[in-house]
Task: inverse folding
């Protein structure tokens, strides 16, 4: 116990001197750390993934300024040049600058990834909530989801794109339709478990409507998991777009995307591997950043499951 | 027990029905007129009409669906729009190559991933555990075709240890057969190993925190026995089921791997068909691989049910 003496010049009484011996401070004073620094130290994965993704986003946004040449300009005289100080990533078989093409390709990947994640999550939440909340609907919806999930997702997208010729919108639709069952199943599970909680019973007892219970009580509590899942869907959508374009059935070849650049470089990869190499690096870094972000968010938002996996 | 097995088998019927409906609906939605395609450019409208009615294309959706299903049950998946060959026989021709790649992938993945997961869990928080987790994230983030090109460039082009592309059926001898398969199988294993390792690790962490593990340690059993006998046996269910579920991703990955390595398998077949809009082939491959996936998971569940008396559905 310390006795606080207001005025240092005031002479302490002998009793006070006995009570307040010269003890070292029990709590060491710490230099106050910036909250951002603390956050980084506790969640290195989120910060690392976020920063990497931010770099890719900046590259995509600033593509017109970062590129060194018109990505579509043909220059037959400068075909298949290896990487050099002038052509940083070399040129392809039509003389186009691979660096500029890769930079612009970031736009397609990010747009498709984000749009597919948003669409698949929206659809998944809708279906999952309906399935989890309407008892008679649940077995029917779940059988359909089970059936859809037994078709490999690449094949769903391939089959859908076989019917509708490739455009960015169709690629997004195909990827969302192949990814949404996972989200729907997760949301349905969350709804089923959350609806048994006491606060939901309380809301029911208060006479809240079903919509209100869903939007005010159940969805906010499932939001963490939905966000984490949406991040992973975004990562697989970016890969899926690249895979489909690489196979020649995704984004139309007139639109720059990493998958398309790789598809064009495929014929030459044994002799000119850099045409395939550079878009791959960007693709991997982007997917890695989104996956890291997802893992970090999981650790941050859902620590209980993070400890185990 | 028999009742449980029967019930598990019955569950697959609606799944297969959904797959069949999806696959059939696809052809229904497909643009273009198959009758006009088969008739060729010189055909008169009457000839096209003739072909249409002989193919039954003028009948209502439900009737066509039912007759299509009856055909599928009898092994008739229709004919290719281009070669006119039966789709079923084309698929049967391609199955050995795809199965070989996937089989070797399963062997590589399981024999690496499960021990990795076990060791990582037994030393939770150590550098080894961190390395395994980092490897898992990398494995998820490395798209199949990127890994394929890296491996092909290093081990086939630069070092020349393996052929760059192609496939040798097992009739050409074991050496060439495995030589052609190894790179594709390792490529396909990347993501699968990451998946199984992750699940094995978390299942093992769960099992290692149980009382019987403490008891086993307390009575002085060797560490290895505790890990692989007591804990792994009890952690096996999630591991075995993720191996089954992962087969879907494996089939998708095979499509890409076969394109990179020029393997004449099902994946190559479906991609070529897609580029030519040969819908019956696309339908056939989607149907066959989805049914294969359903069958694998049915097998996994039944096997597990027989091995572990605690499980019942």
Result:
């Amino acid at each position: 116990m310390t006795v606080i003496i207001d005025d240092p010049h005031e002479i302490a009484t002998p009793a006070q001197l006995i009570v307040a011996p010269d003890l070292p401070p029990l709590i060491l004073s710490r230099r106050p750390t910036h909250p951002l620094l603390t956050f980084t130290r506790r969640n290195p994965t989120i910060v690392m993934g976020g920063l990497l993704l931010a770099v890719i986003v900046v590259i995509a946004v600033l593509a017109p300024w970062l590129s060194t040449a018109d990505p579509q300009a043909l220059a037959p005289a400068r075909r298949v040049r290896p990487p050099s100080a002038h052509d940083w990533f070399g040129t392809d078989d039509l003389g186009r600058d691979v660096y500029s093409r890769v930079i612009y390709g970031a736009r397609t990947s990010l747009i498709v990834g984000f749009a597919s994640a948003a669409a698949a999550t929206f659809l998944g939440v809708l279906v999952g909530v309906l399935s989890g909340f309407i008892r008679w609907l649940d077995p029917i919806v779940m059988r359909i989801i089970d059936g859809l999930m037994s078709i490999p997702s690449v094949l769903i997208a391939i089959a859908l794109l076989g019917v509708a010729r490739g455009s960015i919108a169709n690629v997004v639709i195909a990827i969302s339709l192949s990814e949404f069952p996972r989200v729907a199943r997760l949301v349905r599970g969350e709804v089923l478990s959350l609806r048994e909680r006491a606060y939901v019973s309380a809301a029911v007892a208060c006479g809240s409507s079903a919509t209100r219970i869903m939007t005010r009580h159940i969805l906010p509590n499932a939001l963490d998991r939905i966000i984490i899942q949406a991040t992973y869907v975004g990562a697989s959508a970016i890969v899926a777009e690249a895979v489909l374009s690489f196979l020649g059935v995704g984004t139309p070849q007139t639109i720059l995307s990493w998958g398309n650049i790789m598809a064009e470089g495929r014929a030459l990869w044994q002799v000119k591997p850099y045409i395939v190499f550079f878009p791959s690096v960007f693709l991997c870094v982007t997917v890695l950043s989104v996956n890291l972000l997802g893992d970090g968010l999981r650790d941050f938002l859902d620590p209980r499951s993070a400890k185990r996996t | 027990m028999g009742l449980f097995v029967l019930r598990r088998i019955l569950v697959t019927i609606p799944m297969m029905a959904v797959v069949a409906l999806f696959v059939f609906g696809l052809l229904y939605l497909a643009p273009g007129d198959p009758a006009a395609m088969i008739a060729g450019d010189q055909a008169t409208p009457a000839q096209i009409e003739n072909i249409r009615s002989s193919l039954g294309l003028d009948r209502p959706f439900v009737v066509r669906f039912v007759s299509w299903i009856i055909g599928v049950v009898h092994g008739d998946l229709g004919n290719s729009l281009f070669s006119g060959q039966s789709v079923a026989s084309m698929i049967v021709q391609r199955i050995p190559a795809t199965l070989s790649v996937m089989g070797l992938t399963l062997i590589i993945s399981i024999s690496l991933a499960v021990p990795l997961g076990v060791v990582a869990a037994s030393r939770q928080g150590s550098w080894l555990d961190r390395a395994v987790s980092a490897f898992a994230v990398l494995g998820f983030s490395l798209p199949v075709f990127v890994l394929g090109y890296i491996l092909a460039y290093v081990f086939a082009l630069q070092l020349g240890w393996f052929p760059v592309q192609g496939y040798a059926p097992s009739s050409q001898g074991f050496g060439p057969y495995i030589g052609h398969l190894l790179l594709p199988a390792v490529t396909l294993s990347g993501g699968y190993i990451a998946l199984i390792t992750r699940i094995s690790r978390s299942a093992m962490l769960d099992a290692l925190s149980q009382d019987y593990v403490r008891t086993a340690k307390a009575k002085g059993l060797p560490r290895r026995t505790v890990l692989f006998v007591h804990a792994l046996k009890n952690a096996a269910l999630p591991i075995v089921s993720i191996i089954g579920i992962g087969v879907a991703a494996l089939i998708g990955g095979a499509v890409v791997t076969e394109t990179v390595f020029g393997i004449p398998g099902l994946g190559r077949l479906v991609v070529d068909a897609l580029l030519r809009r040969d819908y019956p082939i696309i339908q056939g491959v989607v149907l066959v691989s989805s049914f294969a996936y359903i069958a694998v998971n049915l097998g996994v569940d039944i096997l597990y049910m027989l091995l572990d008396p605690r499980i019942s559905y």
Observations:
- The domain at 87-312 of chain B is CATH 1.10.3720.10 (MetI-like fold).
- Chain B touches chain A through 57 residues (CB under 8 Å).
- The CA atoms of residues 225 and 231 of chain B lie 9 Å apart.
- Chain B has a mean pLDDT of 84.
